[in-house]
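Lab meeting notes turned into a lecture example. A postdoc, R.K., suggested we walk through two folding results consecutively so the class can see how the record format repeats. The first protein's sequence and structure tokens come next.
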Amino acid sequence: MGVTHLVANGTPREAASQAILLAPNTATVDPMGECIAQFDWGRTALGPLPRWQASLRIAVDMMLLSPFACAVVWGPDLSVIHNDAYRALRLGGQDVLGKAFDAVWSDAWQTMGPWVFKALEGRSSFVEDPPMRIACGQNGDPVWCAFGYSPIRDEQGSVAGFLHTLIETTANVEAYHHWREQAEAFEKQLGSYMADREQIWQLSRDAMMIITRELTLHATNPAWHRILGWGKDAAQGMPILELIHPADRAEVQVAVSGFVQDKALEQIDIRLRHQDGHYRWFRLAAKFDGSLLTAVGRDITADREEATRQSEALLRNSEHLEVIGQLAGGMAHEMNNLLSGIGGSLELLQRRMLQGRLERMETYVELARDSVQRAMNLTHRLLAFSSHQPLDPKPLNVNRQLSLIEPMLLKALGAEMSLHWQLDVRPWTVCVDLTQFENALINLCVNAREACLERGSVTIRTVNERLTAHFPDEQGLPPGDYVALHVEDNGHGMSAADVARAFEPFFTTKPMGRGSGLGLPMVYGFVGQSGGYVWIESNLNEGTRVSLLFPRSRASIPAEAPACLPVIERVQGGRLLLIDDEVNLRALMREFLCERGFAVIEVSDANSALDRFRHDGAFDLVITDIGLPGGFSGRQVAKAMRMLKPTQKILFITGYTDQPIEAQLLEQPGTALMLKPFPLEQLANQAQHMLAD
């Protein structure tokens, strides 16, 4: 619906038809059309604008195109719908949309009331002698006006309102007579349109149909054919029940019986079959004249679809809240166990030191370190599930990478599990994080071993896939080239309910203590963050297949895999700038790096780091956290430093990042990334390796 076009769109016609069929020329659009379209009519007796009768919409369109100050007054409350000229002449620029006519004209109601009642009885009036003086004009000065009252009828022929026209007569008599003639012509034109049922039938945007007592279609209007796609010849004489959805037929038969018996019935919502086979929803009202039933229906398919979408969104939000609650509970449980192990070990270690007893000191340290390592793995898996883990994607050949990690997969499967390969001859290149790719495959193999009770077989397949449509739905992967990786076992399988929850964090079907419920969520997050899609197919006692779909990459694959970092026990020199806002961690890193022979300058924020970088001489390596306070991230720090010194070596450290690190930034020479938490020894070795490179 256009801004001021309240009836229907169609092909251009000549003369007066343009006022109804076409949105008016931009130069003649009444600015009130926008106000009317946006006004909340649901608060008035007229109800929401989309539910207005066709006769009311036609009247409003005609009123908006009128050169006169006029208003449509409609309904039992005499609700006012006016144009801009009416507002300017009577109201000094104020809107009274939806207000009662008698309230708007309360100061003149005693004079105007009788003419209003005559109009509601179906009689037109033009009151010019004597003209009436309006106390509030456009400039605040009183003006003389003549008034027109023209009844407006609805589809049933009953007077539902009237058109109120104001003509200023302050000007000379000649001009007054000229405007009067035009006003009368306009009112006559409106009357002819409203009196001619055929015009309403042809121009209404609502679907209209006339039904015989035998429930066959006698006639249908153009809107009916446009909405449902049926040709005129095909619809003529068609049994109406053949068009109605089977689930709605009983309700329709009851409603038709009520209409025929002239019982007052509410509107009904039914589905009518489109010519191509699908159904559209209509809100129908009907009237029986003794032989034929006339039904008028508004297409509400879009409204119902929107309501369905909102319901589905609410359901998804509810499910998300449930998952978040499960995630929080599972995280608290796991972290409490790990923190208890760390705290208990440190407590006993402190107690033994105070007692001067050195036995079992190494045991307590190892217990604490083991709990820390498990906490590190837990946080890394949670980041993978949330798709916020920092990734370092590289082009790789899936087949070659699978062959390189085959020993690790066999170890994860165990001695009594067999591994079979069905690999595409020439798989396309994919671009993924190598470490996370390997972790995902190992997790899937561990799950397969558990499903097979450590005795069965696993088949890994790779295949090139070309999607010609979105997968699995319109919100899924776009059409294009992908590489599919399928991991299939012959284990006990999963129920449909378990499959639906398989990717929820901390959900597991394994016995207590045999799994954390983070393996599949980690795979889910990694694949999604890599631009792919993962799903599970399984039935009880029929095995399980987990499928991973990665987008094809056009990048070239490096000739050789990067060599492992050499571990050098001690560094001779090296000036480092350490940037981290976590005081305790920064102090520990500084102390360990100093013990390894580095000269370390530490700062807590980006501004201090840039100041030291500019004024404290050259640094061999900058170690910076990515998430820094003050709105200036580690990425921006690195870019600013390399503007001053393009060859500056930088080691990024992070535990979480809400934005992926740009690939081109990590691919620059002298750049590396480490994920918190990490052993301090590993940090020192990485720094040594970067300085030696």
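The second example is placed directly after the first for contrast:
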Amino acid sequence: MSIVALSDDTSQSHIEIEDLHGLAASLNFKITNDKDAGAYLLMLRSFESVMQHVEKAPDYIHPSLAPQDVLGGQTREYHKPDPSDNPMNAWSHCCNLAAARPTSDLLKGRSVVIKDSISVGGLPTTLGTHPEILSKDGELPVSPIDATVVSRLLGAGAVIKGTSTCENFCASPLSWTSASGPVHHPLLQGYTAGGSSSGSCALVAANALVAVGGEDGNDSYESFGPTVELAIGTDQAGSVRNPACYTGLYGLKPTFGLVPYTGAASMSPMIDHLGPIASSLEDVAVLLKVMAGWDGLDPRMTPESPTVDRVPDYPALLASYRASLLKQSDDTEPVLKVGLLTEAFSVSGLSPEVAELIKQTTHEAFATAGNASVTTISVPMHTEGPVIWTAATRPSMSQWLSQGRPSGHLSYLAPHIAPQWPPDQRMYELLNVSNPALVNIHLSGALASSAHDSRGCMSGLEAKAHRKVFELRAAYDRALEEVDVLVLPCTPTVSMPHPPDPDTPLGENNNGARILDRLAPAVGLTSNTCPFNVTGHPAMSVPCGTLPVFVEVSGKKKEVQMPVGMQIVGRRWDDVGVLKAAALFEAGKKRIS
């Protein structure tokens, strides 16, 4: 370590000798020599001076992240939607952004919504949380940058219609934690749309239902308000796949490092993914082509990440594969080996009906499509996946999620996303009601920084968990040498009702019960999705059928068919293989119907 400079000018310093001794005590030692204490005090004040210098310096907006020129001038207009136009509470802010000079027409005129944890220049970024947690004055921070994927979408001709409601700090697989209120399922008010990309999936699913309603004359779909064709979400434990599963969409978590995460709020760098959400495979493919490729800013990208000019042409590859499936005599395509992941069908909370539907549909659809064989395959370590995910990320998650800390690698964090830290009583009270899971993340981080294991600190266990990730990755890689893709459940059940909304702050006598009652539906919900966030394998939720949910409306029982999604997992960097497997499955389903 080098010391840049030492200065005797202490006029701007807030650090006194008592502060030095307090810092030493927090590290479990004492500085007993006064001269030594004076020397360390000087060095601390010098460090403080360096940080003050950086604080006063103007920030730097990287040229590639400067907001794109859009039609209508430099000012980007936006508004909060009227509640009557936002019945699902899926919109955060609405706008109408189209590039003044698009560089391609891959997404010409297509409407897209961006999850409200991803920077859109000129619009606020809410992270689904309370304004007073994001800034000292309680004003929502407005983004001075376009995230890399936002620039690429605009450049491809997309029209960004706004930002979508997301869960509070993206820390929920269900859709009731946003500070603006719950996001409702398009098919059933009061039921979860899944999270944390809740608004993104609700809006795309509603758009698909409007299209169907136009064909079958279902006027009830007109009550959705504005919808969109496509969406972008973030996925750290299943936050693209789970809401896509609940709402009957395709939601892809790409291979880790394929799509740059620059400009999005991090939960933990090793699990951060951006993914496309759409109602068709073709739309997922074109979104992936537009979004993917090295950007020179994201440390999550690896030597395997393609440069933009070398990104596979996913739409063309998918179209070519679909064409080959139509040629019954064409045997050039190899037989696809599909493995039903045994351990994934025994996770806690998995509905027997969901498990049976996925197994049955997988066998029937692939058999009908031909060019496929279905078998069972065992990866015993899959059952440890959620534990490894938790141990590898939870100890330090609050640093990235709630404190906006950089990862230690050179990275470009969104300059306007700087949550207030440390928390205070008011923050606790807000989060205790809206998303107690986030309070747990904060407490877990505090425990990790203070607790001791047999070797001296919990960080040693976090490091071991990272090593276990490599072991888990190798276990899936071995299975994917025997089969081309794994198939397993995504969410363990169909959509469920939101937990009761507390009318008053949680009382002293019922805190535990109320909190656990509200969090209980989310326990174990990501057991089949989160392991692939740490291992980096591409994974996609694929619609595979529906199951009935019975609700009471006006004193009468009503049956609603709610979507079920299965998950297809492929080899790392073989995202096109996942798309092809989904296409083959889809072809078989169509022949059955």
